[in-house]
Amino acid sequence: MKIAILSRDGSLYSTKRLKETGVERGHDVFVIDHLRCYMDITAHSPKVLYQGKPLVDIDAVIPRIGASSTFYGTAVVRQFEIMGVFTANTSQAISRSRDKLRCLQILSRRGIGLPVTGFAHSTKDIDGLIELVGGTPLVIKLLEGTQGIGVVLAETDQAAKSVIEAFRGLDANILVQEYIKEAKGMDIRCFVVGEKVVASMKRQGAPGEFRSNLHRGGTAEKLRLTPEERSTAIRAAKAMGLRVAGVDLLRSNHGPVVMEVNSSPGLEGIEQATGVDVAGKIMAFVEKSAQEKSPRGANAEGSQDRIKY
């Protein structure tokens, strides 16, 4: 099979592992910088071009789209979809999960456990917003934040008001969530492929740090999920429409709650913590799904000037 990995940096651990695993399984795997792709948007012969030549005869695409390039990256994924190419995650699912507010609203509609969350536009409603989530301490999140950046724990009402006013003064959109004290700085990353959790780990925040992100000094180790946690992770990924996802949970007094659903979860931390070949699980899923997909009609075009790898 011919498989394209959409990634800005081929030296990243996740990108390298996927490429190496695909090659070991006998596939022609190559990395494409999606921001260097350009598109021919026509009714009868849609194309994605790279280095001046059309990308053709591709059986599958694995998107590794960073948050900063979501708009253009999903446009490239969507173009491959129009061409009939199987994509490990669809453009719509990536867009859904990247919009934190939309993501939570979809999960809420599906009855999936969430922290109590508030969203408002005017700073005149701060008091009501704080009361809505149960008072302080509470967590304030930038909608555009990633890897724990733009996430603030406010211990008092005055601190919460100051942070909210500061963010809104910069015209930044924020969420306000209840602080799950009983989690004690620990969260759970569930790695979902297809409709199965293939690996799971707990992440513990560094001393004095309520955020458990590994990028912020957190530690990770293998964890056995409860049936409810496993079901919640699968349902959350399915609600987003994601075939490959990292679902982050907290253990609360009222059961597991979903904090985030990630469409491009990193492989390094979870593979090292669990010893599971997650890249192999993804590649096996892509193989099976692409083979089951109906033949593509558009990729027969332009065979005389194909880009080679």
UniProtKB/TrEMBL annotation:
Residues 288-309 are annotated as: Disordered. Its cofactor is Mg(2+); Mn(2+). Residues 104-287 form the ATP-grasp domain. Keywords: ATP-binding, Ligase, Magnesium, Manganese, Metal-binding, Nucleotide-binding, Protein biosynthesis, Ribonucleoprotein, Ribosomal protein. Mg(2+) 1 binds at residues 248, 260. Gene3D superfamilies: 3.40.50.20, ATP-grasp fold, A domain, ATP-grasp fold, B domain. GO terms for cellular component: cytoplasm; ribosome. NCBIfam families: PRK10446.1 (NF007764), rimK_fam (TIGR00768). ATP binds at residues 141, 178-179, 187, 211-213. HAMAP family: RimK. One of its GO terms (molecular function) is ATP binding. Its EC number is 6.3.2.-. GO terms for biological process: SOS response; translation. This is Probable alpha-L-glutamate ligase. InterPro entries: ATP-grasp, ATP-grasp_RimK-type, ATP_grasp_subdomain_1, RimK, Rimk_N, Rp_bS6_RimK/Lys_biosynth_LsyX. Binds 2 magnesium or manganese ions per subunit. In the C-terminal section; belongs to the RimK family. Belongs to the RimK family. Mn(2+) 2 binds at residues 260, 262. Mg(2+) 2 binds at residues 260, 262. Mn(2+) 1 binds at residues 248, 260. It comes from the Bacteria. The gene is rimK_1.
